[in-house]
Amino acid sequence: MSDTPPVITGTVYVVGDNIDTDQIIPAQYLNLVPTIPEEYKKLGSYALIGLPEACPPFVEEGQMESAFPIVIAGRNFGCGSSREHAPIALGAAGVKAVVAESYARIFFRNAVATGELYPMESEIRLADVFQTGDAATLDIGAGTLTAGDGTVYSTKPIGDVAPVVSAGGIFAYARETGMIGTDSQ
Amino acid sequence: MSMTITEKILARAAGRDEVKPGDNIWVNADILLTHDVCGPGTIGVFKREFGQDAKVWSREGVVIIPDHYIFTKDVKAHRNIDILREFVKEQDLPYYYDPGTSNYKGVCHVAMPQEGHVRPGEVIFGTDSHTCTHGALGAFATGIGNTDAGFVMGTGKLLIKVPETLRFTLNGKLQKGVTAKDIILRAIGDVGVDGATYCAMEFDGDGIADLTIEDRMTICNMAIEAGGKNGIIASDSKTEAYVRARTDKPFTPVTSDPDSPVKEHRTYDLSELVPCVAEPNLPDKYAAVTDRTDVKLTRAYIGSCTGGKISDFVMAAQVMKGKKVSIDTFLVPATQEVAEGLMSEQIDGQSLVEIFAEAGCLDIAPPSCAACLGGPLDTFGRANTDEVVISTTNRNFIGRMGSKQAQIYLASPYTAAASAVAGHIADPREFL
User: Fold this and answer.
1) Does B151 share its domain with B40?
2) Do B239 and B285 have their domain in common?
3) B264 shares its domain with B292
4) Is B400 within 8 Å of A84 when comparing Cβ atoms?
5) Could you tell me if B26 and B174 lie in one domain?
6) Composition of chain B by helix, strand, coil, percent to 5
7) What are the residue ranges in chain B where pLDDT is below 70?
8) Could A32 and B76 be called an inter-chain contact, meaning their C-beta atoms sit closer than 8 Å?
């Protein structure tokens, strides 16, 4: 378990409260099966395509991945469906972490179980502080999100979640730590 | 120690005498439910992690009910059902309900209890957030993702956190025209869409006895709409009669200790509740119907695990009998059994099918999830433009029924039917 929690630098994409799973990945794309590699990639190209039309595109037309490695959100991010396609679509699009005020339970769990992204919680509401396109650096280990002007915002500790995400999800973590055997595949 | 029904079920499933909220425990699953949308991915995880030749932990524990994308030309949707078929054959699974055969059921959350797969005191995991429906029969039931489901499929276990409980005591009797849907929309309106996050929503009180099993399913179905981990109602003689009629499997019901501590306790006098809607775009946007009669509608939709059961169609028919709908009205029975009930159930000698046809509803669709969640472009009832829909379903998120321009009002079958006749949001009490 030598995975060090990463430092993620890039531009942020900002959304508000109650971003539900239908906005993250609309149901019409649930015919794609995430464990089939080309369909996994395709899910990424549709990430956040269900947001209201006034929102800037998260993935540019014709692209498979997003230019935004960090998503900043308000309360209850990922509410609604248990579809694991939601954290997978974000992860496949290149998102490394979401920094939200709070999460819906199943989304949080699916993000960790799949290891697709770090579901960080901010100490204060950041959805009104940042704007889409702002530069930021997220240090998972230190629990800080640093804005382009140098202002540092804290994230809440995520404890045992970080190593599971770093390992690539619960199965990979369980193998790395000897919780389960390594003889399958 | 004094425990809630949720804590007691989880303690038993973990082989412990007691658990408390916040404990992380390994529990044994009784049932793993999956369907055509999440089943193929779950199978993919299971095979990737446990090996191509691995066997599921329990052949009788895995229940597969395709229901989401059934009546569509979408090629991948058909491919996904083929993946399920192949897996069922390979694993020799007894509980698979194959589309296109007489064994096809329809919406999994209505088919599960109907087929005897839900039993009081048991633990049910499902790859669908509305798995919480099954708490209506006194089970612990919650939605999980494909990766966790792949783990359950291989081991029969899952690590979970014991939730705190929000207790909703329902006393008294509903007035005419007010339904279980109005109870749960009111409760969600009161606590908010994240008010029950990580919590159990437990419903008790002297008002429960009057509620049918289907009413209780409607209530528990929407626990997830407040962020709840599970919804639950302790079983009673009604529950036990319902379950005994459907399965021979033994079960041991559980109830909350009367003084069991909870995070929050709310009490409702059911006689004070009124017909209501949840306005776009969140299920907690509660409004009394009488305050929204100015909202003009273009479409009504009656269906889904929340509002597509036989009792839901009986309610709609009571309102529509002898009247004409003034907007496009889509009817999607949840299961084949409900579809058959539309022909056999009668009001004053007229079948529900006849009542709906005379009222001018569109031809009744075959059972499935259909447009509740939008789905492929050719899905029956899918909102493709700026429709204003009154719907008996459970979610009114932006784009939920297919189009971001559509506006969805959630309501009871009574209210949806009355509004279909009026062409605007209407009070069903004026029609009954």
Assistant:
1) yes
2) no
3) no
4) no
5) yes
6) 35, 20, 45
7) none
8) yes
What's the gap in Å between the CA of B351 and the closest CA on chain A? 34
Measured between CA atoms, how close is B196 to chain A, in angstroms? Answer: 10
- Contact between B405 and B386 under an 8 Å Cβ cutoff? The reply is yes
Say yes or no: B362 and B229 in one domain.
Answer: no
CA distance B305 to B112: 11
Sign of CA dihedral A27, A31, A35, A37: negative
The C-alpha atoms of residue B232 and residue B214 are separated, in whole angstroms, by 13
pLDDT digits (tens, 9 = 90+) for A141-167: 999 999 999 999 999 999 889 999 999
Q: Do both B325 and B220 map to the same domain?
A: no
Is residue B231 packed enough to be buried (19+ CB in 10 Å), middle (13-18) or exposed (0-12)?
buried
Check which CATH number belongs to the domain holding B87 and give it. 3.30.499.10
Taking CB atoms and an 8 Å cut-off, how many pairs form between chains A and B?
138
Q: What is the pLDDT of residues A91-118, one digit of tens each?
A: 999 999 999 999 999 999 999 999 999 9
Between CA B331 and CA B329 the distance in angstroms is: 7
The ipTM estimated for the assembled molecules is: 0.96
Task: State whether B224 and B285 are in the same domain.
Answer: no
Question: Domain containing B11: what range?
Answer: 5-251+260-268
Residues of chain A numbered 79-98 and touching chain B (CB < 8 Å): 79-85
> For residue A128, what are the CA distances in angstroms to A47, A49, B397?
22, 21, 22
Homologous superfamily (CATH) of A12-134 is Aconitase, domain 4 (3.20.19.10)
For residue A75, list chain B residues with Cβ-Cβ distance below 8 A.
Answer: 194
Residue A2 pLDDT exceeds 60: no
Confirm or reject contact between A53 and chain B (CB < 8 A).
yes
Query: How many other CB atoms sit within 10 Å of the CB of residue B310?
Result: 22
Please tell me the distance in Å from A83's CA to the nearest CA on chain B.
6
Residue-level pLDDT at A185: 43
Q: A151 at the B interface (CB within 8 A)?
A: no
Q: Which of residues 194-233 of B touch A (CB under 8 A)?
A: 194, 197-198, 224, 227, 229
Q: State the burial class of residue A179 (Cβ atoms within 10 Å of its Cβ: 0-12, 13-18, 19+).
A: exposed
- Domain final residue pick, B209, B235, B268: B268
User: Do B147 and A31 make contact, defined as CB atoms within 8 angstroms?
Assistant: no
What residues of chain A lie within 8 A of the CB of B127, using their CB?
A: 82
